[in-house]
Amino acid sequence: MDIPFLDLIRIRSAVETFVTRAGADWSAIKRAGKAVPLGDLLDGHPLCLVEVKNLTPQAVALRLQHRGIDAALPAGNPRQPLAGFVYGDGLRALIFLNRDDPFARRRFSLAHEIGHFMMHGGGALARATAQPAKKQMEYNPDRDDPREIEAHAFAAELLMPWEMVVHEAAALRAGTLGPQRAILALAARLQVSRQAAARRLAEWRGVD
User: Fold this and answer.
1) Of 28 and 69, more confident
2) Does 108 score more than 80 pLDDT?
3) N or C: which end of the chain has fewer CB within 10 A?
4) Residue 6 CB neighbours (<10 A)
5) 14 vs 4, 63, 119, 164, CA distance in Å?
6) How many CB atoms lie within 10 A of CB 43?
7) CA–CA gap between residue 153 and residue 94 (Å, rounded)
8) What is the mean pLDDT of residues 93-119?
């Protein structure tokens, strides 16, 4: 199945809205060229982060019940490992992350779930990420679900905006950095996984 057309203008607008509503200057963050301060931005929103070992739909349901929330979760295996999950009403939300995942992956999962909150917040949310079969593998959205693809694109635009990728991309294109060194440099600077950095560099126009 073909990937649905992405409205990048809408996605980038949602990213900027998320940043500015937190009281930050998106242009200044991009100019700084450092890892996006995701935790600081999160604090500027009605979002509560909960990190859980062995995150599953069942674990999410139990924690929601402890908060007095009786939520209907998506059908499927209640013990399926999850990378992240968001539950909210468009005004506020709880974001659950798998504490067992590496730091860079948790950052991407958090950005992904924020994307759901910002763009898909009409009504109750119960959006789970795909099963992390290997902890070092980057999240791969379900190609049949446009909302998952949009949230994935939101995460990439938030953590790796083009203005922050241009240095490594230009060096790669000019041949002054090899592919592996460019990937490692971008991943380290922006605190993303090597898989996420490689995919972003591959998306850069003119970079093979």
Assistant:
1) 28
2) yes
3) N
4) 14
5) 18, 29, 7, 18
6) 12
7) 21
8) 95
CB 81 within 8 A of CB 56: yes
Altogether, the residues listed in the chain come to a count of 208
Q: What is the pLDDT, as a whole number, of residue 123?
A: 52
Q: Which tokens sit at 100? A: 């067992």
Average pLDDT over residues 43-58: 95
Structure token pair of residue 47:
């979002």
pLDDT at 58 over 60: yes
CB within 8 Å of 151: residues ≥ 6 apart: 112, 113, 115, 116, 119, 120, 127, 141
DSSP 138: P
Q: Which is it for the CA torsion 95, 35, 208, 182, positive or negative?
A: negative
Q: Of the candidates 158, 126, 130, which has an alpha carbon nearest to the alpha carbon of residue 144?
A: 130
Number of helices (H), then strands (E), in the chain:
9, 4
